[in-house]
Write a structure and sequence with these properties.
mainly alpha
Length: 75
């Protein structure tokens, strides 16, 4: 038969332990949220760079002739 000793602070200690555990868990989840937000920001930036590069390539392709017209005229 085991003897349970009463905690000197009683229910308040149990409440504080639960609160501490909840705060630690919330801290861990905040880290995940920060990573998720940073990942989303990097994805948006990478997409913006990709779209800008494609648009710039299209403009350059339209402005600079590629020489196809010269080959057609010589035939």
């Amino acid at each position: 038969m085991s003897i349970r000793r009463a905690h000197p602070f009683g229910a308040a200690a149990t409440l504080l332990q639960g609160l501490a555990a909840a705060l630690m868990l919330a801290g861990l989840l905040e880290g995940c949220a920060v990573v998720a937000v940073a990942d989303a920001a990097v994805t948006v930036a990478a997409t913006a760079v990709k779209v800008t590069a494609k648009a710039a390539g299209a403009v350059v392709g339209a402005v600079i002739p590629d020489g196809d017209d010269d080959e057609k005229k010589s035939d």
